[in-house]
Design a protein that fits this description.
Radius of gyration of chain B: 20 Å
Shape of chain A: globular
Distance between the termini of chain B: 53 Å
Order of helices and strands of chain B: HHHHHHHHEEH
Largest sheet of chain A: none
Number of strands of chain B: 2
Number of helices of chain B: 9
Strand content of chain B: under 5%
Number of helices of chain A: 18
Shape of chain B: globular
Oligomer: heterodimer
Strand order of the largest sheet of chain B: 1-2
Number of strands of chain A: 0
Largest sheet of chain B: 2 strands, antiparallel
Amino acid sequence: MSSLSTRFKSAASKRIVPSWVRPWLQMLERFLYSSSASARAAPYIRDGACVQGILNNFVIATIPCWLIGLWNIGYQSNLAMVEMSLTQLGGWRGGILGSLGIGYDPANMFACFTHGLLYFLPIFVVALLVSSFWDAVFSTLRRRSLDEGLLAFAWLFALILPAGTPLEQVALGISFGSVLGKHIYGGSGRHLVNPAVLGLSFLWLAYPDLVFGEANWIPVPGFTQTPELLLAASGGIEAILASGLNWWDFFLGVGTGAMGMTSLLGSLLGAGYLIVTSTVSWRVMSGVLLGVAATAVIFNSLPSDGNRMFEIPWSWHVLLGGFGFGAVFFATDPVAGAMTNAGRWVFGALVGVLAIVLQVMNPSFNEAVLIAVFLASLCAPLIDYVVVELYIRRRQRRIAELVDG
Amino acid sequence: MIRARRALLAPLIDENPVTLHILGICSAVAITNSVYSALVMSLAVISVLAFSNVTISMMRRQLPSSVRLIVQMTVIASGVIVVDELLQAFAPETARTLSVFVGLIITNCIVLGRAEAFAAQNRVGVSFLDAIGNGIGYSLILISVAVIRELFGTGTLLDVQILKPVSEGGWFEPNGLFQLAPSAFFIIGFIIWGIRSLKPQQVEQAEFESIVAPELGGD
C-alpha cells in the first residue's frame, strides 16, 4: 500500500508527467491518500491540521444535517405525492425507486432518504465536477498544487440549494463562486467571502424565480409549497402551526427549505463537533444568538404594517429559513469571518442582526442568513482593524500610566 | 506626427482611462445596462471631452495657474450643460433613461483629468486628438460592458432579440444579475484582468511584500 502510495505521489508531483496532467493526478491522490506535508512558514496552525483537513471537518460536521435534510426532502415529496394521489414518479428517479422496490411510503425512513438522495446526488456531482474543472484550470495556469477546498465547497454549496434547482444553474453558481470567490484571491484560505455563499448570492440575484421558486423546495412535479417564512409573514405563527407541525418538528428538521438547511438539531450536533475539534470559535455562534435574540425582541415591540413577521419570537426565528445551518457552518467560516476574539463576538452579532432584519423585512427570500453572512464577511476586516487599534491604544495608555507613575 | 498618433492611439488600450487609470467607473457602472444608452453616453462624453480639451488648450497661456481648476470646471460644466440641453431637446426619451448621468459628466474624472494633465500643456491640435482618443478608449470599455450586460441580462442587443428567452419558447434564461449595477463591477474587473494578463507592464507595483508560503507537497 505504502509503496503504491509513494509511487502515486511521485507521479503526481514530480516532473515525469506533463504539467497539465499533474493537477488531475493530484486530485485523485487527494481523494485516495491524506497529505503528509505540513506548513514550513507562518501562519502556523496549532497542530498538523492543514487547510484541507479543516475544510473537511466542515463536511464531517454537516453529515447529521445532510442525513436529516435528505430524509426531509424525501418525506415531504412522498407526502406531496400522497396528497396529489400519485403512486409513481416519472423519469429516471421513478425508474430507480421502482426497480429497487423502495416505494414512496412517507413513514418509511429509508424510502424517504433514498428519494431525497436522488435529488441531492445530481446537484452535488455537478457542483463537484464543475468546481474540479476550475480548480484544475487555475492550478495548471498558476503552476500550483491543487486547491484544498475542492470537496468542501461543492458539498456545502449542494446543501444550501433547493432540491429542484436546475443543473445548469448549479454549474453557473459554483463557477461564479469558485472563480470569483476563491481563485482570484489565490484559493481556499484566502477568500473574502465564503465561495459557496457567493455562488448562492449569484443565483439569488440572477435567477430568483428559477432557483428559489415555490415549486423548487419540494421537487415533485406540479407541486408548490409556500415556505414557512412567507406563511408567517401573512398569518403569524398560527399559520405555521396550522400545517400540523409544531416547534419540535421544525427543530428536528421537518419543513420547507434547502436540502441540508432545515434541521436545527443537525446543526447543533455539527456545532458540537466543530467546537470539540477546535475548527471554529464558539464566540461567533454565541454572538449570532445574542444578535438574533436582541433584534427579535426589538422587532416584537415595534408596530408592524401587516407584516406579521414582526411578532415572531426569537425562539421561532432560529428555526425558520435554515437559520441554524447558516449560523453554525457559514457564520463561523475561519477565513471570511473576524479573526480576533472580541471581533468574533461583534461579527457574530452582526450576522444575527442582519439575518433577522432581512428575514423580517423580506420574507420572500428563504435563506436570508446566508446573505447576512455575506454582508458581515465584507465588514470582517474592518471589525478586526478596530479591535486591534483599540487594543493598541489600551496598551499604550497603560504604558503611559506606568511611565508617569 | 508620432506625438499625434500617440495622443490618439495610446488611450485605446495601453493608457485606457477606465482600465488603467480606473476613472469614469461611476458612469460605466450606472448606464451600461443597455447598448443604446452606452452609445449615447459615449457620444456625449467624447463631445464634452473634445470641447473642453480644445478650449482649455486655447487659453492655456492666458490662464493663471492659481485659478486654473475653477476655470477648467467652468468650461467643462458649460459643455455638459449644452450637451444635456441638446439631448433633452432632440432625444427626450434617452435623456430620461440617462437621467442624472449626463449632468454627472461634469464630475467624470476623465474630462478634468485630460484637461489638467494634457490640454493645459499642449497645443490645440494634439489636445483635440488626445480628447478623441480618450473618449474612444472610454467608449470601448463602456460599449463592451453594455454588450455583455444587455446580451446576458435580457438576450437582446440594441433591443433586437438575439437569444430567445425560455418564456418565448427559446432556450436562454435571462440572467437578472447582469441587469443590476454590481455586474458591471466584475465585468470591468474581468476586462482589467484580461488586459493586464496580456500586457503585464500595466500591473501596479505591490504596496507591500507578501510572504508566500513554500509550496506544500508538490515539487
